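Assemble and predict.
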Amino acid sequence: MADESKVSPDLEPQFDRSKLGKVLGEADITVTEEAILQFAEAVGETNPRFSQPGPDLEALPGMLAIINRPQARVQVRFPFATVGMPAGTTMEMFESVRPGDVLHVSVKLADVYVKTGRSGTMGFVVYDKEFVRKRDGKLVARVRQSSLTRP
Amino acid sequence: MTTADYTAIDVGDEAPGVVVHFTLDEVKSFLSIQGQQNRESRFTNPDVAAREGFGAKAVVPGRMGLAYLARALKEWLPEGRIAKLDVVFRSPTVQNTMHRAGAIVTDRSEKDGQVVLELDVYLETEDGQRPQRGAATVVLPRQ
């Protein structure tokens, strides 16, 4: 986690620090053929492997990054900033995702920190999600999503 | 779709890439996956984008750009497994602007009968701006 020892009090983020590193929520989601096809169409994918119904259909990588369940979040307030936006996403993918897969999703608050750079001072909040396939217990993917808040 | 003979892929090779214009209709189609296509936001309304400091044009969801980067990799290397994709949203990706989702190989290694490629990935505008950039690891079966 980021070192907050140099953050001045007026920049310090306000949140329930007991939540750091803890599982905030869990949910089971079923990946449907419809959702796979809708995602492929939304990004213009035409490879039949990702865009046509059939026994070989699998989800395009990137699809799990848009899964917004569970919606468990920690309220984080940065005294200096009000406008929030995504800062980046890291995905690690271990298994293909196919129609009918039931994925157990858990989300943790991984980090909260303040950074000052050329653009000014920004606050960052990082969540980690794990996707485990229920039928065989295999880890399908990890997704780390960072958001930043700025004045 | 252009696919590669990946046994010949080496450091410095570039993906053909995917060109996308990011129109409002395309963005709304992406947002519709989560039922958010009719919500007033920086993605659907330029006035909201301007009010929030993103400039005069509506912007593109970061995860949509990431999805195009994944698509560019899979189109070039369809037999590859994207093991890791790490993208930073460095600046707003604006709508109605031509972008190319691209990738370039920065390292190649072989391990356990597989070829592992490390790549830089980027979403690039016609004037060379890269609002999204990062790195990817793609694992291919060794032929």
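Helices of chain A lie at 33-42, 48-51.
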